[in-house]
Design brief:
single chain, two-stranded antiparallel ribbon, 7 helices, about 35% helix
């Protein structure tokens, strides 16, 4: 599976999902993301690390980059769920986390509930990457759940423009549009 940027080119080199966005993982992700249960970040991060390690995916990686939140969203939520997952995955893989490589410069609407085409437009140009520290690095974007891939594709595009050698995407869960999981909060109790 590969995610395309706005020009239709592959935005990332490889993508990896531990599992489908289905019970019980969907419940764990929702509890972390919407319920603020930060201890779940440790569980999901360790799961991601073990799964990636079983395939040797960490062998050609310089650092992990959690999908950045806009400062307003971070202030509202109080944490970045992708950063929580990345922190524990990095520990398990003996890799650094490099959150400063990119920023979310646009305060976009939440992707939840948006149609696939609207998701792409919503995040277009949302990220910028820091050129000198990115150039030549092999970067893995870490996210909790990926539905259409629009967010990670835009972030990967920004990293590529800043000179990243490779950009991979790792996520805990992959949602499919036909499963009805494109709105994770629809399943919340």
């Amino acid at each position: 599976m590969s995610f395309a940027d706005s020009h239709g080119d592959a935005a990332c080199d490889r993508s990896f999902a531990v599992c489908a966005y289905a019970p019980p993982v969907d419940t764990l992700i929702q509890a972390l993301k919407y319920g603020g249960q930060l201890a779940i970040g440790r569980v999901l991060g360790r799961l991601l690390a073990r799964s990636a390690s079983s395939f040797g995916l960490q062998l050609d990686v310089d650092c992990l980059l959690p999908v950045p939140l806009h400062p307003l969203r971070y202030a509202e939520r109080g944490f970045n769920q992708s950063a929580e997952i990345a922190r524990f995955a990095a520990r398990g893989l003996a890799l650094p986390v490099a959150p400063g490589l990119a920023v979310r410069r646009m305060d976009t609407r939440p992707q939840v509930g948006l149609a696939p085409a609207d998701r792409h437009v919503n995040v277009q140009g949302a990220f910028t990457a820091a050129q000198p520290p990115v150039r030549g690095r092999r970067i893995v974007i870490v996210d909790d759940v990926i539905t259409t891939g629009s967010t990670v594709a835009d972030l990967a595009r920004a990293l590529r423009q800043a000179g990243a050698a490779t950009v991979d995407v790792w996520c805990v869960a992959r949602a499919t549009l036909d499963s009805g999981a494109h709105d994770p909060r629809a399943r919340r109790k």
